[in-house]
Amino acid sequence: MRADSVAHMFEKVVEAADRLADAVRECEPPADDDALLAGLWAAVAARNAADGLLARVTGEIECNGSAKRLGMSVRELLRRNGCVPVVASRAIRLGRAIAHLPVLARHLRDGSLSGEYADAVARGVRHVCTRTRSPLGSELAIETEAVLIGHALAGRSPVEIGDRARAIALENQPDVDEVDGPVPPVAEDTTLNEVSWAQRDDGRLAGSFDLDVIAGERLISCVDTASRPRPLPDGTPDPRSANQRRADAFVQVVEAASRALGVDGLVGSAKTEILLTVPATQDECCGIAPAGPAHLQWMGSVSDEAVSLLSCDASVTRIAVDVDAAPIDISPAARLFTGRTRKAIVARDQSCVMCGNPASWTDVHHILPFSQGGATTCDNGCLLCRTCHVAVHQHGWEIVMGPDRHPWIRPSATVDPHRELQPAYNRRALRLDALAA
C-alpha cells in the first residue's frame, strides 16, 4: 500500500474515532433490554477494534523508529499518550506478533477478539515455538494459532489458553535438534530459563521467572530454609504470612549471595554499591542543602530511612545535583563493616542478635548511625538479618550496647509496652538478675 494511501486511511480513522468519542459521551443507556444488549455488543466490538488498531499502530511505530526519533522508547511513548504500563506492554507484544500471525491480526481488525484474548493467543504461540524450537510462521505455529483462537472464541479464559499452549508444547517437544543434537527434557533445558521484571507505578518491583528443574530446586531449597517461622525475641509467634516469609527469605538469599562475592575477596564483605542522586541547592554561605527526595539508580525515589538501611552494609555514593541535573558534589563511599571488624562481630554475636538467623544472612548494623558520628567499630556494630534490620530502622525496635560490650534488644512498644531490654539471641540463656549480681 502506498504511503499516501496509508496516511489518508489513518486520517479517516482519527476522524471516525473523534466522532465515536463524541457519540459515546452524548449517549445515554436505554431502558429497553434489547437495546442495552445491542449497545453492549457494539461497545465491546468497538473496544476490540480499538485494541487491534493500537497494536497495528504500535507495530508500525516500532518498525519505522518514530519513538526513537522523538527521543524515547515505544513503551514510554505509549505511556505519555495515556496507556497504563500493562496496556503499553500488551500493545508492543501484539504489534510484534501480528506481523507473523495473520489470522490473529484479522480477528483483531474485525473486533472479534479483545486485546486480552489476542495477547493470550500470541503468548501461547510464542511459548510453543520457543519450547519446540520452531520458527514463527512454521506449520506448528500456524496450527497452534488456529487452536488457541478457537479456544478464545469459545470463551475459554486466558489462563486456559495458556494451559492449552503448554500442552501443545509438551506434545511436540523434539528429541533431537538438527543443529544442537539431542534435546534435553523441557524441565532440564537451561536455554529456556527466563527472568523478567518491571517497576510498578507505586515504585515497587514486580517480576516473574521460568527456571529449569535444578535451578528451581536450589531456589526453593534456599527460600524454604530461610522462610521458616521464627518467633520474635519475646517469644511471640512469627506474625508474617507464608508469602511474606518467602519474600523476606528471597531478599535474604540475594543479600547473602552479594556479600559472599566481596570486592576484596573476603567472604561476607559488602559487594553491593548503591548510587544515590540527591537533588540539592548550593549556597555560598550554607554549602549544599537537600532540595528534594533522593533517587536510586534503578528504583527511583527513596526515603531517608531506606537510604539509612542500605548504608549499613552496602557502599553508598551520594551525588548531589543542581536543578539542571549537573553534579555539585560527590561524597566518598560510606564506611562499612568489612574484613577484620566484621569477623570480630561475627565471632561475638554468632547470629542475628534478634532472631538467630545465620551470620551469613546478616548485615552489620551501626548502633549509633554512621551519619550521626557512629564509629565503625565492634562496640558500635551488631548482626541483624534483613527482617530484623527493617524492624530496627522502621518499626520501633532498638539495639543498645550494654556495659558487658554485648548488644541488647529493646522491643517496640507495640510488642512490649514496658520495652524491657533482652539479651542477644546467642545469650538468651542469661538472666538480667544474674548479670546484675
From TrEMBL:
Domain HNH nuclease: from-to ranges: 340-390
GO molecular function, a single term: endonuclease activity
Region (Disordered): 225-245
Keyword Electron transport: no
Residue stretches in coiled coil: none
Keyword list, A-Z: Endonuclease, Hydrolase, Nuclease
InterPro entries per UniProt: DUF222 (IPR003870), HNH (IPR002711), HNH_nuc (IPR003615)
Keyword flag Hydrolase: yes
Pfam families recorded: DUF222, HNH
Family recorded in the similarity comment: Belongs to the Rv1128c/1148c/1588c/1702c/1945/3466 family.
Name under which the protein is recorded: HNH endonuclease
Species: Williamsia serinedens
